[in-house]
Amino acid sequence: MSESREFAVMSHESDIRLAGLETHRNFDPVCVCQTTHSSGNHGQALAWAAQHCGLPCNVIVPRNTPTVKIDAIKGYGADVTLCEPNPTSRAETCAAICSEKNYVYIPSADHYDVMAGQGTIALEFLEQVPMLDAILVAASAGGMVSGIACAAKQLKPEIKIFVVEPFGKDLERCLREGKRLWPEPPQYVDTIAEGIRIQQLGKLAFPIVLSLAEKEVFTTTNAQIVEGMRFAFERMKVVIEGASGAVIAAAMSKRLRRMDGRLRHVGVILCGGNVDIDHIPWLPTREA
Amino acid sequence: MSGRLTITVNDILKAKNRIHSCVHTTPVFTSSTFDESYGRKFYFKAENLQKTGSFKARGALNAVTVLKEGESPPKGVVTHSSGNHGQALAWAARMRGLQCAVVAPNNSPNVKLDAIRGYGADIVICDPTPTSRQETCHRIGRERGFHFVPPYDHPDVIAGQGTLGAEFLEQIPELDAILVPTSGGGMVSGIAIAAQALKPDLKVFIVEPNGKDVEKCLRAGERLWPNPPRFLETIADGIRLQQLGHVTWPIIRELVQKDVFSVVLS
């Protein structure tokens, strides 16, 4: 328990920790492999974090990645290297860069420092809204939900952490059986929510989610994700991406409605707003 | 002689007391990207996040509260509106337990009409001209005993909108200028009155759709617009009125910058 407490407390400034590493030893420039399913958020975030710490950064992206995402990553000063659009090419290109340039690989989710950074969401949220009884959070590889679960359960053990998934991830079955039941090789889920396409939870994330999250998982279809997004856009005037729409859909669901009435104060993690405004799901595509 | 009603910052502060428990203190956003691109520090007052989705909630609620607290409160309120004021008035009336009817032109977006009905108000459709709006509105007021709350040409509405200016200056005391989109002029009047009292050096600038010609009018010191009042062709459906109001005009002529930002929005 004390180990995970330390883990949660150190999470405050994980990017500053990277800079701290830098002062103790030689430059540790960072490298990230942009996974084919990724919405680009991790690539952008890492480029920004590296720029903030004055470290070089290289992001590997599949050659069919939309230009707008590549430009966003370059905008933060990172180098972009293209690879073929498959996991093997991605991993090989990434490994090659890491060894050639002596860079450190930072994955998007299955890394304790990354999880700790995401866990700061829960520290902040509970400070802002101490009366939360539950938090709904979307999961792809599970970096965010792991970090949030660790932090939240440390601060408020009775709080319930619910995972929200796209239809096809089948997480509830895995959690109830306590086993990774997903097929190999790793698959992508067919969902409009670009940020949550990975079917499997990461190897580090799975035991954390198994031990700390609720077994009930909220599954969302594309239509429900759209409804969640539309509510945010139209009623809240907030621009959110698909994964966030999924969490709103979970909040709207009959399943949540039927749950324990003592869950009065429910946190909804709107994890990102990087939506392509020319490709909003319910609108016709805007031609350039 | 300035010829204007003496709406003062005190009216704005009273408005704030009436409405503050019901309206949001909206956030102020900044964008380093925008500042770098456009060469100054910009502060975006997010009234798009206000109750009912626009700043109009402030003026409407202040006006309705004054009526409700008056000696003989009316049964209800009525107005004509392209949408935002109608929504705001419907909401404000519901907050204070009054009935509400909103006269809307037949080309109003459905989402706005649904929102108005969602607050419990009655919609009455009119032709898409300022004259039809006003005539229908007065008729409904007479028939139902409802008090007319105009979208801008009323001291309580102007004072309500002015709370926006007071709030903004409290949040960002270093503001040197405020850019305000303008239709009838209720918001820019209210903001200008607040600014004059709280920070006299601050410059208030009107932003208009191309064709409103406010700068010409301000420099001439005269209302040069053609009659009857027209709507402009613009995608910005909230700022289609060509003319400034009659209560707002003298305030704007006295307090607002003569340089007007004219934006092509058609």
From TrEMBL, chain B:
EC number: 4.3.1.17
InterPro entries, A to Z: Ser/Thr_deHydtase_PyrdxlP-BS, TrpB-like_PALP, TrpB-like_PALP_sf
PANTHER family: SERINE / THREONINE RACEMASE FAMILY MEMBER, SERINE RACEMASE
Pfam families in the cross-refs: PALP (PF00291)
Leader sequence segment: none
Domain Tryptophan synthase beta chain-like PALP positions: 23-257
Family indicated by similarity: Belongs to the serine/threonine dehydratase family.
Organism of this sequence: Mya arenaria
UniProt keyword terms in alphabetical order: Magnesium, Pyridoxal phosphate
Catalytic activity of the protein: L-serine = pyruvate + NH4(+)
Superkingdom of origin: Eukaryota
Listed cofactors: Mg(2+); pyridoxal 5'-phosphate; Ca(2+); Mn(2+)
PROSITE patterns: DEHYDRATASE_SER_THR
Gene3D superfamilies, sorted: 3.40.50.1100
Protein name: L-serine ammonia-lyase
